Amino acid sequence: MRARSASDEWISGFLQISPMFEPLREAGKLFDNYNQWPDIENLNHLNTHPMGKIITKSGKSIRFVSQAKTNHEFVQQYEPRIYLTGEIQTRAHNWHDLFNALVWVTYPRSKAALNQLHYHALLEEREHNQVTRSSLRDAATLIDESGVIVVSSNDYLIELLKNFAWKTLFWYQRAAVLAQMKFFLFGHGLYEKALHPYLGMTGKGFLFQVSEVFFNQRLINQIAMMDRWLEDYLTRECLTSADLVPVPVLGYPGWSPDNSDSSYYDNQRYFRPRKMKNTS
After folding, report:
1. β-strands 203-209, 245-247: how paired?
2. Which Pfam families match (predicted)?
3. How much is the average pLDDT of 244-253?
């Protein structure tokens, strides 16, 4: 039997330890008073979405199941099994898989769209006996693990982010960022890292222009809107990792106890400048 590690330990009230977990709090409120790991049935109680059962793009209702032994049959592989049966293999006492479940409940349309992308990409790789992972599946994996939804009503702030002007964005435009730009973690791997954040923690961002009215909406409505937008975004099967913008998430005001000092943003190993293209 595998020895337990410190990373396996349950953290009571984990969704309250950082503002980065805000999007998951509604889905995870069942666990607010838990003093031990939820089991599979507890996870399946999460699937009570107000708009109805969460379903895959193939029309299957999702259900969390214990991880099976390795099976090399295509239909039993992780993503195909979700698409074809709705069964999401989930490891016990595992933060990565718990956050995956919470993201499914929080962003059901987007997760279903990602699963469909994975499934179709795997089918194509199989058909062509392709050994390496396709650029489409690379991008889908990056979003699934490290995606960050960035919304803003201010074109200038979006341009600063695209141009890696991190100190101008997060420090000199700090008030504007708090009022007119918001980050929402999507990737379940990124949520796992947020339990023990570290300098260097970076997401892969997709940007949405919004009106000022967006920021007056309730969080649950904001998330529902973004879930639809991201679902539409993911229907483009020409998606590549080049479409994603690096986002040093600990730069967002208040997401690190250290970023209240301007010198925090001088660390170019984390807040990396944009590489200049060689025009010679």
Report:
1. antiparallel
2. DUF3025
3. 97
